[in-house]
């Protein structure tokens, strides 16, 4: 269920402090420690799932709830006119923390383009 060495599992358990914005039985949300937008939240399933590539049917409820809750949390934090949800996965996706998390990004002004077009 949880990985004793995972930093996001430790945040869920309260062993590492975080600025929590939401919690229910399956999901925990908190401010990213190095925000890249005026609103930058992280939403994680409480259960340890390393990446989206390892997500199973049993994780559908928690992952679905993250998508459904994201807009409300974004608006609550001031991003009330749209936001971006990003899930980096694995090496190619440049995932750094191996516990599935969705970045909720926004603010008052439009964000930069999703990825620069190289051609
Ligand atoms: P990734 O690159 O894996 O998609 O994103 C990992 C995110 O976790 C980064 O945006 C990073 O700033 C954030 N992060 C890493 N360690 C901590 C921490 O201990 N606390 C919080 N609140 N965020 C963290
Ligand atoms: Zn974990």
Structure characteristics:
single chain, 119 residues, alpha+beta, five-stranded antiparallel sheet, 20% helix, binds guanosine-5'-monophosphate, binds zinc ion
Task: Explain this structure.
By secondary structure, the chain is an alpha+beta fold. It is built from two helices and five strands, in the order H-E-E-E-H-E-E. The chain has helices spanning 7-13, 60-76, and strands at 20-23, 27-31, 39-45, 84-86, 102-106. It has a five-stranded antiparallel sheet with strand order 1-2-3-5-4, with helices on one face. The structure holds guanosine-5'-monophosphate and zinc ion.
What's this model, at a glance?
This protein is an alpha+beta fold and 119 residues long.
Which shape, going by the Cα principal axes?
Answer: globular
Unreliable spans are none
Identify every distinct bound molecule in the structure, by name, code or SMILES.
guanosine-5'-monophosphate, zinc ion
Helix content: 10-25%
Average residue pLDDT: 96
- The count of DSSP E runs of length 2 or more, i.e. the number of strands, is 5
Radius of gyration: 14 Å
How is the main sheet built? 5 strands, antiparallel
Number of helices: 2
Listing every helix as H and every strand as E from the N terminus to the C terminus, the arrangement reads: HEEEHEE
Give the structural class.
Answer: alpha+beta
Strand content: 15-25%
Question: Layout of helices and strands, plus pairs?
Answer:
Elements: H1 7-13, E1 20-23, E2 27-31, E3 39-45, H2 60-76, E4 84-86, E5 102-106
Antiparallel strand pairs: 1-2, 2-3, 3-5, 4-5
Bound molecules: guanosine-5'-monophosphate and zinc ion.
């Amino acid at each position: 269920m949880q990985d004793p060495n995972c930093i996001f599992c430790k945040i869920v358990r309260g062993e590492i402090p975080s600025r929590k914005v939401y919690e229910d039985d399956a999901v925990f949300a908190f401010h990213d420690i190095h925000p890249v937008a005026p609103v930058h939240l992280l939403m994680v399933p409480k259960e340890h799932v390393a990446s989206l590539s390892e997500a199973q049917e049993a994780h559908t409820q928690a992952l679905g709830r993250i998508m459904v809750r994201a807009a409300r949390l974004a608006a609550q934090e001031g991003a009330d006119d749209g936001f971006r949800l990003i899930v980096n996965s694995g090496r190619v996706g440049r995932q750094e923390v191996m516990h599935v998390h969705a970045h909720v990004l926004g603010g008052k002004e439009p964000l930069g383009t999703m990825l620069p077009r190289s051609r």
